[in-house]
Design a protein that fits this description.
Layout lengths: L15 H8 L4 H8 L16 H18 L21 H6 L9 E3 L7 H14 L3 E6 L2 H14 L5 E4 L7 H9 L2 E5 H9 L1 H4 L7 E6 L10 H14 L4 E5 L1
Parallel strand pairs: 1-6, 2-4, 2-5, 3-4, 5-6
Helix pairs in contact: 8-10
Length: about 250
């Protein structure tokens, strides 16, 4: 401020204020008015800082409250989904339904045969409506093949491609991947495709709107590094896609 306000600064040179007065510029009155106005800093609302244990307890209590409501939950009807033979979505599917079009990532954890695949399909419907691609990842080749067969029926109007260790990335396969709207692959294949994106011209990765990662508890095993590195590399290529973990 010594160089801005006053008659001269410590080195004896004119301050900016003095130069402005000599110039007689039109905004000098505004400058004078602002100069004498005390600056007030808005006070931030202080929030109590929770310890990690307190935060964990709060999260557990919130989860327990949600679980208590499940028996009384009004289940969502499947009337607008003739592809399903059941009349209502189950609790985990009903809880997922409101988020199907939201721009958020999800972690869906439920028991085996709890209907997590249907949760993923609700999100897939919204992504396909937006004209974006979908990637499904599984650490198991058999599970990847199972989803490929099921979704060829569930999403029969869309092109679906599969990529596991049993397939060679031939020019024909590369063309198939470029044309597909749904791509099911093993986690290792995702790791390879993202690592070789430029050399293989896998630019379709940038058009993906949803990545479904199944069996994500594998992240804590010795095979988890391939899953993790593939996902991390993908998110550096495509920052807009939603990531959904199923476990």
């Amino acid at each position: 401020l010594a160089y801005v306000l006053g008659k001269e600064n410590p080195k004896g040179f004119e301050t900016i204020e003095e130069k402005l007065k000599k110039k007689g510029w039109e905004y000098l009155p505004l400058f004078e008015e602002v100069k004498d106005t005390p600056v007030t800093t808005p006070q931030k609302e202080e929030k109590p800082v929770k310890t990690p244990i307190e935060g964990l307890k709060q999260g557990i209590n919130e989860a327990v409250n949600v679980l208590k409501e499940i028996p009384n939950m009004a289940l969502m009807t499947t009337a607008y989904y003739p592809c399903y033979k059941f009349t209502h979505f189950n609790p985990i599917q009903t809880m997922t339904y409101p988020f199907k079009g939201e721009d958020i990532n999800l972690v869906i954890g439920a028991n085996t045969s709890a209907g997590k695949t249907v949760c993923a399909e609700l999100l897939m419907d919204e992504t396909l409506k937006q004209g974006k691609r979908i990637i499904y990842l599984s650490p198991l080749k058999s599970l990847t093949q199972e989803k490929h067969g099921a979704w060829k029926i569930r999403f029969k109007e869309f092109k679906i491609s599969i990529l596991t260790g049993d397939y060679v990335l031939s020019p024909e396969k590369s063309k198939e991947l470029q044309d597909a709207r749904i791509i099911v692959m093993t986690s290792e294949m995702c790791d390879s495709r993202t690592r070789r994106m430029e050399t293989e011209k896998n630019y379709w990765l940038k058009e993906v709107g949803l990545v479904i990662v199944d069996e994500t508890h594998i992240l804590s095993t010795e095979r988890g590094h391939a899953v993790e590195s593939g996902i991390m590399r993908f998110t550096s290529i495509n920052r807009e896609a939603r990531i959904v973990f199923l476990s």
